[in-house]
Design brief:
With about 375 residues, the chain is mainly beta. The chain has four helices and 23 strands. Among the domains are: about 145-290, Immunoglobulin-like (Sandwich), CATH 2.60.40.680; about 300-384, SoxY domain (Immunoglobulin-like, Sandwich), CATH 2.60.40. Strand 22 and strand 23 form a beta hairpin. The termini are far apart.
């Protein structure tokens, strides 16, 4: 910031009006002073990384880009919601909009790390000053990728579970240089059980967003249960973008037991960014589903016998799941790691009782298959 205004005593003004040499000297001095940088204190509100007046999921995109950066600490290293002075020496890097990376140091300790993401979560929704709305550019269905919502069974019973698959892009509209995406899902809070708490997104642990290495996509989730507005961010944080398309995860929504009729799930306010925070348009979408009171939510039995998984331990590149009763068809296969993370979901048409799956990309450990048929759910573990 440069000095642009100098307040002059009135006596100097009168002299300038009558003394030409003094006026020339004074004006020359002003020109020189205008070129001298003046240190002006800058302030940050912890969590509002893009400094637009509100803490939300867009700030997570900025956090992911700046993750790992270091610089001077703030004098106040707390993260409570109040204006903080940035360090006197700003950091070496700036975001494309000109903001210094020090804005991403939400807790002020000199490092951008997971603790700063926690500050975003803790201060989520807080506002200060004049809020500048984030910009979203809806994509063109003819040329841009879609954030898709789809359900194999969009008609459920009260107290039943609606499963909605979430995807991004397609084979002919693949995503390139993906680093993060922020989006909002709007739902009817009266339709969701447990006062809106029974609404979650299970992100695939090995989604294409994770790439080929150990870097897993990080999920950010904030749910306004009263308004039925859930804000998400899915980001990488190792500085390496990826490309791809396809499934991201599945919404599991338990329906309120007294709700009936039609409702809509809407994905909107989508901002997809590359590692330089360059954005690409994405087509929003919605899904209409029905809650039919004539249906009864049934509890599907879970059994640990009747399903063969071989070879166990795995000795090759593939593993086979085989139902002992060939009359039962496989409708859904889910693979979980020892920590309960969903690694893969495969939907089938229910016409086969045997299925082979590739397993070579997974590290050694204990895994569990959950197999859904038209009669029951089978659970079986194996070792690799």
């Amino acid at each position: 910031m440069y000095l642009s205004r100098l307040i002059m005593p009135s006596i100097f003004v009168s002299q300038l009006q009558t003394t030409a040499p003094l006026r020339n000297i004074f004006l020359t001095t002003i020109i020189i002073l205008c070129q001298i940088p003046v240190a002006v204190g800058q302030q940050v509100w912890p969590g509002d990384i893009n400094n637009n007046g509100i803490v939300n999921n867009i700030d997570v995109l900025y956090w992911a880009v700046a993750n790992g950066a270091t610089g001077d600490k703030r004098t106040d290293t707390t993260s409570n919601w109040e204006a903080k002075d940035l360090p006197a020496n700003l950091w070496d890097q700036d975001f494309p909009n000109g903001l210094n990376y020090a804005y991403a140091d939400c807790d002020g300790d000199g490092d951008v790390d997971d603790d700063d993401k926690t500050v975003i979560e803790n201060n989520f929704g807080q506002v200060h000053g004049e809020v500048v709305p984030d910009e979203y550019t809806p994509g063109d269905p003819a040329t841009d990728p879609t954030m898709g919502l789809a359900s194999d069974n969009p008609v459920v019973a009260p107290a039943g579970t609606l499963m909605v698959d979430l995807s991004l892009g397609s084979e002919d509209k693949a995503i390139t240089d993906f680093y993060g995406i922020a989006f909002t899902v709007i739902y009817d809070p009266d339709a969701v059980g447990n006062k809106g708490n029974d609404f979650r997104l299970d992100v695939l642990a090995d989604t294409w967003m994770s790439g080929q290495g150990d870097e897993k996509v990080i999920q950010f989730f904030q749910n306004d249960r009263d308004l039925g507005i859930a804000q998400f961010a899915l980001v990488r944080k190792n500085g390496v973008p990826v490309s791809g398309f396809g499934d991201i995860g599945t919404f599991n929504i338990v329906i309120e037991e007294i709700f009936t009729g039609k409702s809509v799930l809407t994905a909107s306010d989508i901002q997809m960014a590359d590692v330089n925070l360059g954005t690409s348009p994405v087509v929003p979408s919605d899904l209409e589903f029905s809650v039919d009171s004539t249906l009864t939510a049934t509890i599907v039995p879970i059994v640990r016998t009747g399903l063969k998984v071989y070879p166990n331990p795995v000795s090759g590149r593939e593993i086979t799941i085989d139902l002992e009763n060939p009359e039962e068809g496989i409708r859904l296969v889910e693979l979980y790691d020892v920590n309960g993370r969903l690694l893969r979901r495969l939907r089938l048409d229910g016409q086969t009782s045997r299925q082979q799956l590739p397993i070579s990309t997974y590290p050694r450990g204990v895994y569990t298959f959950k197999v859904l048929t038209n009669k029951r759910i089978y659970v079986q573990s194996f070792v690799k």
